[in-house]
Amino acid sequence: MDMKVVPWRLKEDFLYLMSCFYNEGQEGIPDLAALFRGVEIIQAWSTRGRIPHSVESTSQLVSSLISNDRSQKLALAVSISRFVSGLLDPIQQSQYAIPMAVLAKSIDLPTYFVELRHAITHEELPSLPVLRQAAQRALSWLYDHYWNPAATAESEDTYDYTETNELHKFEIKRKVKDLLKQWRSWRKVNVSANMFLPVEEHDYIQQFEALVQELVTTANLRLPYIPASFVDDEKDLDFAIETTNLDIVVSCFLEKRVLIPSRTMPISFFPKLKNVWLPLLQSIASKHSFFLPALFTTLWSEILEISQTVDSLVFLDLKEKEELTDKESAGCYLAKWYAYLMREAYTGQPWTSTLSVTQTDLASVLEICLQRSDPFTKIIIDELSILDKELENKFSPLFQYRSDMFDSRILDEQEFEDITLEQMKTELNKFSVRLNNIEAQADSSTMEFQGHVWYKPSVEPSPIGQIIES
Q: pTM score, two decimals?
């Protein structure tokens, strides 16, 4: 059996590339971003070795079709000519030259392409509409005679690259856990030691720097197998997470005995936990530009996932609850770490320079938290609502309402029976007064136009041309 070396490692890579150029069943045209992505992947693969002619031709034809510059006509002519020559020249093996039309019939290539190639080479270039139509017909021919047969052929590749990655991740995770265990054991004994002194002053500083460098180096190492969908995005966070050990290192930090206590602990223990791990986080963040953004993003995903497991109809005040479950305790500490990192980044602390948090980001987080009723997002609101005065004023009625809901309790049937009609009226009057206050405040500071509420700025009248100090 003939074996050929190809630039993709797995059939899934080939299928992903095919999906960039062709929709399933060739129905419609893929979006422009997918076409560009396919061209980029082939360009990256070309650095690995020879690209099959049909794959390279597809890339050239697509590039010519999506080009908008003045040279599109010439680009289409060249790509069509190469498409025909690349198919027919390799089978021209006779001692005497065989007409191209005959060779074309042997591979079921319409003679239309041969005639068009002859016109491009020896006559005046055909018009742009003719070339565009020819390029599209060439792509259809390539789908029928190369891409679809290759995609549906039985794969003889028995090597499981996914399993290789999983074994690699297991080994890396064990290594990272050992390094974090070393740090935890030493830091608990030397909890007050300054870890940012010059390296030459203390031996423990040298050991600390060596441990940090080992973690950073490990995080930067590539996975054994990188999917085709992650080619040529070197400066992208998603690329770093999907193709290196960064995701493994970050996940190790979010386990028990690291950023989460080994057993259920009250939230008041957080300052002590922070004192243990903050120097290590700060040092890694200064040496790995993606570490802090990856940790921040993963924390948020974990918090949202845990919050979905809490019954939205039950409001828990964790400060008064006698015993927390493991999941509740973990969720609280993840929320505390997330709020701490966001506060540090929002206030511009130097060690968080790789993590950008704008007012829009802060507002988005607060809005999402306000839509949830779990105790973890309440922690985030309590920590972050005071960071920005403008946002605090904007959301204050919602903050107050949510706080009141958390202070309330779900009553059983017996407790409902004990409530008198007068008590219910008093409670209703209280809410009415609050609603009137909110409406009065809205009337004085907002106006409605075409269904939208606009906040009116409080600006004193002044003569035209006079500078108003804000």
A: 0.59
